[in-house]
Predict the structure.
Amino acid sequence: MDNAMGSGHVLVYSFDVFMQLYTTEGFRERDAAELIMTNNLFGLEIDKRAYQLAYFAIMMKGREYNRRILSKEIKLNLHQFIDTPEIPNEYFERLSEVSPYSHELTTTLLSQLTRLLNHFKNATEIGSILKIEEPQQSELDQLDQFVRSFEIFSNMDILYQLPEIQTKVISILDITRLLMTRYTAVTTNPPYLNKMSPNLDKYVKKNYPDVKTDLFSVFIKMNSNILLDGGYAGFMTPFVWMFIKSYEELRSFLITNKSISSLVQMEYSAFEEATVPVCCFMIKNAKTEPVGNYFKLSDFKGGMKVQKNKILEAIKKTSVDYFYQTNQNNFKKIPGLPVSFWASETAVKDFSSGDIIQKLGDAKQGLIPGNTIAFLRLWYEVSTNRIGFNNHKYSDILKYRKKWFPYNKGGSFRRWYGNLDFLINMKNNGHDIQFSGLNNNHRLRESSLYFKEVLTWSKISSGSFSMRYLPEGTIFDIAGCSVFNVEDKFYVLGAMNSKAVSYLLRMISPTLNYEVDHIKKIPIIFSDKDTEYNVRNFVKNNISNSMLDWNSFETSWEFKKHPLI
């Protein structure tokens, strides 16, 4: 089964696989071709041109093995979604007239048909994720017989275009059968869509509320649920579902109810036509095989040929360092259930061995100024007598009547101290931000934490994680996330800037986007008293040295003179 089959590439490849299976079992190629076309390949598509190309491709594959295939009345199990047509009452009246069933059963069947047709009102927009829970298969067979009993059309039927309506109704019944069937194998490269049309968005939120983040996540769950016991579903999707919080419910569903049989995390530029962070993976409809095969190809550049060769190499020689066999139940031990298949057992154990940051401090996102051009300045663009340095609490904004205040906006990689470049216009408690008419996207939140002593980090990074200490006096930004009220701040800061924490962060956020929720989950394991004492002193020295370095250049507002003078 190929959901969202496109122009049929997967089906064409599947045809060749089936041909090998049939011929191995002793079938002649020409007989096998017909059996494959009628019994083994199924596909659904919303785009008419893609459907036509797929149909043509499979017919040509059949012709490759059987020269007479085009002269036979072969009906492929490929379908294009159609919306329910406008159906006049005359159609239902004629169905009642020609029905071979009792009046009571005919009334029931007409009611079932009406409900089914209502499902297809926006079918060309909803496509394969159309959720149909009734009728059951046996009822669908009877409904199909009921509709097909309308075979002879009068002149008035033709005038009302009932033959055309009948054809569309039968097509909807055929599509319904495919949607209700359970399959041995389902595969697709689903649509990557998180900004949906109003109809589609409403449908997804109602029918797939736990995987509504993106259309590809809906396909993953839906396809996994239309498998026979022991069946396989194959996907190629963005790999963000493996880590990001908004896909946590999807991960929980897969890890709890299915088995991840294999997964290939590909290099960003594996597809030479476009740089897309994707993975290919197989889901088995079974809970009994939690150990899967994982391939991490992120480091191998050179296009799809290199990726293919690396996979074949790992299959022949499983000792390569980019091949992993992992029990997916380990993912449950990591906060957020990330599919961090490369994580060592020791690292997984760390998450249950220490106190997480959430227990040790109060991690928060800062305010959103909105129009940064209007409300942010580099500190040296503003006269110093208009800047409110050394403030201690939110009320100081009004008390000292300043307009500009130090602003922690995150910045580039830097540990221990620094990245103090910006000011924000918070005159009169941010009056201009809120009421100037220049801004429609602002959030002046967490004001009680303004100017507090913090440990801070940059939300977005191009490399390793880095955390800094900032004394009292700054307002924090959404990109300059911060942890407040940390009792043992110097030990925690030392741990957060260690290689061990960088490793743990790559497990839960390989995308290098360090959200507050990621940092909250990091475990801090305390050592013996002597080690803790040494760590604190080491961190204090690092902060002092980093502060001295930052203030040695004219880009710091604490600059006095260059150290070489």
